[in-house]
Amino acid sequence: MHHSVELIDVHIRLGNVDVLSGINILATPYEFISVVGANGAGKTTLLRITNGTLRPDQGKVKVLGFDLSESNQTHSVRKEIGLVPQRAISHRFPICVEEAVLMGRYGKIGLMHRPKKDDRDKAQEAMKGVGIARFSKKLVHELSGGEQQKVALARALAQEPSVLLLDEPTTYLDGESSSEIMETIHSIHHQRGLTTLLVSHDPRWVDQYSDRIYSLKDGKSQVTR
Amino acid sequence: MGWVESLSLPFMQHAIIAILFAGIAFPMIGVFITSLNLVPLRFAMMHIALLGGAIGLFLKIDPLLMGLLFCSASSLALGPVSEKMKMGLGTLSGYLMTLTLALAFILFYKGNIHVIQAFDILWGNILSLTRGDLLLVVGVSLFILSVVALFFKEIQAILYDRDVALAVGLPAKGFYYLIVFILGLSIAVSMRMIGALLVDAFILLPAIAATLISRSLKQVFLFSSLFGLISGLFGLYLSFLLDLPTSSAIILVASAIIGFCILVERRAWFRANVTSR
């Protein structure tokens, strides 16, 4: 079967710690996969390996058929992988929401080219999709943590990815906003036909939205549903 | 001799041309330093230049040229080396800062070199620029301006968040190395112009001032260039008028601009948060 994401026997040691030691995760196109694990279980490392910004010491990582564990030139496939990082809180940097979301298009625009109307329209559409269009001219660092998280999600969607990686997307949100953003993510996942990989320590959303759930413990993965 | 007559002197013309180019281009490097927190690297470059100068004096080669060569070579190597060693650029800079200083002092001692000779590299003088120096300043300035103009969006993404730049598919690592290289090159050239100890006048202070009052990266670059130009030209004029060391006069003007920008920022904050209630 063709998989969008394939992690086979992935090992990585960071410093003196074996963070991941035998990870096997498969996601077919349009699947919503969740990985649950306690804080420090290696969930963020797992996503960094999946989007090609970290290379495993051992094992195979294939995304959209591209072998990320073999190549140093991973930026071409990264354009197809949207990432919503956990640390979405912005330092004091002079950038408005609209520009921060437009950044999701930068990889696809190509070096030395400027964003065109089509790119701006896609950024606008992504902002509307997550409900932040009314903040578009505000500076990102002036927004609340939850709003900044939505900016990160809109940026990932503006990228028009085939695979969406979500690192604890509800960390900075209250109960109501968490439910709202998870509902948004779920409907975008279906509308756009994405393969979504969510990592979280919070099982509430995972049970509700996932097609398959993996648990991460002691550096190893296990299918739990 | 009056200010206007002094402008016909070749050394004054060299100084003004250097300020016109460096004043516009070099503050952009300050924007890189403040956004990427590269202050330790800027200090390391000063010490690396001192080691280059010491080797030059030891081997009887132009110490300024050796300082420049050492800075350029180190800034090319530092990014990849820190990556390979899995050591942060800040930590590596701290290590190099002390190591290069120790090596420089060993050379002074063993080569019987008068320390003040080597420390000449730390002072610099914008009024003693040769034609070759001027060409170097203009060349490096044009290089910086071209890189910022051509790769504005890539630079914006990296300064905002390197992880985001990587995630959206930009070759962020290569651009980061390029930024580190330009930083080393500009520091080496500014040292020749105004001395390593006062490099901040052109590089850091205008960028700090611009960051205080800007609402976009484009504004930061534009304001920092404007402030660099004003502090350079007005500083040169003040040094002539009040008989002050030129570099110090430039720093005084740049510092006054920062003070002004702090007032502007406070006023804007007060309006937004107090009077609007």
Write up what this structure looks like.
The complex is a heterodimer of chains A (225) and B (277). With 225 residues, chain A is α/β, with parallel strands linked by helices. Chain A contains eight helices and ten strands. In chain A, the strands form two sheets. Chain A has a six-stranded mixed beta sheet with strand order 6-7-8-3-9-10, sandwiched between helices. Chain B is an all-alpha fold and 277 residues long. Chain B has a single domain (3-266), classed as Orthogonal Bundle (ABC transporter involved in vitamin B12 uptake, BtuC), CATH 1.10.3470.10. Helices cover 82% and strands 0% of the residues of chain B. The longest helix of chain B is centred in the C-terminal third of the chain and has 30 residues, at 246-275. The interface between A and B is medium-sized, with 34 and 26 residues.
SSE blueprint:
The complex is a heterodimer of chains A (225) and B (277).
Chain A: E1 5-14, E2 17-27, E3 32-36, H1 43-50, E4 58-63, E5 66-67, H2 75-78, E6 81-84, H3 97-102, H4 106-109, H5 117-130, H6 145-158, E7 163-167, H7 175-192, E8 195-200, H8 203-209, E9 212-217, E10 220-223
Parallel strand pairs in A: 3-8, 3-9, 6-7, 7-8
Antiparallel strand pairs in A: 1-2, 1-4, 4-5, 9-10
Chain B: H1 3-6, H2 10-36, H3 39-59, H4 63-84, H5 89-110, H6 115-123, H7 131-150, H8 152-160, H9 162-167, H10 172-194, H11 205-213, H12 217-242, H13 246-275
Helix pairs in contact in B: 2-7, 2-10, 2-11, 2-12, 3-4, 3-5, 3-6, 3-10, 4-10, 7-10, 11-12, 11-13, 12-13
